[in-house]
Amino acid sequence: MAGGPIVRRPSFRGQGGTLFGIHIVNVLFTLGTLGWYYFWAKTRTRRYIFSQTEIEGDRFAYHGTGKELLLGTLKAFLVFFLPISILAKVPQLNVPMAVKIGCWVGYTALAYLFVPVAIVGSRRYRLSRTSWRGIRFSFRGRTWELMKIFIKSTILSLLTFWLYYPYFLVHRQAYLISHSYFGDERFDFNGEGRDLLGAFVVALVLTPFTLGLCWFWWAARKRRYLWEHTLFAAARFRSTVTGGALLGLYAANALMLIFTIGLAWPWVKVRNINFTFRYLELVGPLDLARIQQQAQFASTTGEGLAGFFDTGFDLA
User: Fold this and answer.
1) d(Cα 186, Cα 231) in Å, to the nearest integer?
2) What confidence score (pLDDT) does residue 313 get?
3) CA–CA separation, 217 vs 244, rounded Å?
4) How far apart are CA 217 and CA 219, in angstroms?
C-alpha cells in the first residue's frame, strides 16, 4: 500500500533570550544615533529571524541591508510624503475654499492609493532579499493591478455595507500569492470570496453577544482558508489553527507585554512565529531539484513607504 502524502513542517530554532540581546543593542544604538540606526536594527532582527527559520533541514537567509532601508525610506519620503504633507498643510492657510477642497481630495486620494504602492513595493523588496537553499524568492506583480482591486473593493464594500470585505481579502491574497515565485516556480491561489462570506456574517451577528471575541474564530477561519488555498507546484499548504488557540496566544502575549512594560517583546515575537509554524504544513510532492534561480531587481522605495504605512506581511 502506498504511503500517505509527504508533509513538510517549518520550524523556528531561535530563542527569546538571544533576540532580547539583539533588541537591547538595537535600542541603545538607535537612541545613541538619534534614530538613524533604526534601519540597521531592523535588518539585524530580520537576519536573525530568517536564519533561524527552517524547513526540510535548510534555513532561510535574508540579504537586505540597513543602507537599502535608509535610502528607500528617504526616497519614499521625498517622492510620496512630501507632496502629501504639502496637500495637508495648504488648507490651513488663507486660501480659497476651492483650493482647500482640491487639496483635501488630492490628499485623500494619494494617501489611499499609496497603500497598494507600499504593499507591492515592500513585498517585491522583501522577497527579492530572501533565499532558501541559495535560491531567491521574487514578486512580479504590477502595482496598478492591486490598485484596481483596492478601488473596486472599496466601492463595492460601501455599496454592500462591507459585506464585500471577504471578497476583497481573497482577491488581494490571490494577487499577492499568484505573483510570488521561488526561483522560477510560481505560487498559486485558488480561493473564492464567497467561501468566507458566511463566517464573516456570523462574526458580525455575534459581535455584540460575544463582546467581539468571536473575531478570533473568524481570524482562525480566515487564516486556515487562505493557507489551504495556497499552492506551490503540486503541494498545498494546510493550517489547523483554531479560534481558541488564537485567543489564548493573544491573551498571554498581552499579559506578558503589560507586566514587563514591553520588555517581553522578543519572547512574544518568538511565540508568534512558533505558534504560526505549529499549525502550518506543506502537503504533497515537490521536485525541488528542478527549480532554477531567477533573481529579480527590486527597488527599496516601496519598503520605505511600507515602513510608514505598516503594511505587508513580514516575519520580522
Assistant:
1) 9
2) 33
3) 7
4) 5
31, 15 Cβ separation under 8 angstroms: no
CA 217, 219, 221, 224 torsion: positive or negative?
negative
Phi/psi zone of residue 28: left (φ > 0), alpha (ψ -120 to 50 degrees), beta?
Answer: alpha
Average predicted confidence (pLDDT) for the chain: 91
Residue in 165, 167, 184 with CA at minimum distance from that of residue 175? 167
3-class secondary structure for the chain? CCCCCCEECCEECCCHHHHHHHHHHHHHHHHHCCCCCHHHHHHHHHHHHHHCEEECCEEEEECCCHHHHHHHHHHHHHHHHHHHHHHHHHHHCCCCHHHHHHHHHHHHHHHHHHHHHHHHHHHHHHHHCEEECCEEEEECCCHHHHHHHHHHHHHHHHHCCCCCHHHHHHHHHHHHHHCEEECCEEEEECCCCHHHHHHHHHHHHHHHHHCCCHHHHHHHHHHHHHHHCEEECCEEEEECCCHHHHHHHHHHHHHHHHHCCCCCHHHHHHHHHHHHHHCEEEECCCCHHHCCCCCCCCCCHHHHHHHHHCCCCCCC
Cell of 203: 462574526
Length of the chain: 316
Average pLDDT rounded to a whole number, residues 97-123: 87
Side-chain half-sphere CA neighbours of 144 within 13 A:
0
What is the average per-residue pLDDT within 245-264? Answer: 98
Would you say residue 303 has pLDDT above 80? no
Burial of 109 per CB tally in 10 Å (0-12, 13-18, 19+): exposed
CA dihedral for 230, 236, 237, 243, sign (positive or negative): positive
Contact 287, 56 (CB under 8 A): no
Cα–Cα dist 241/227, whole Å: 10
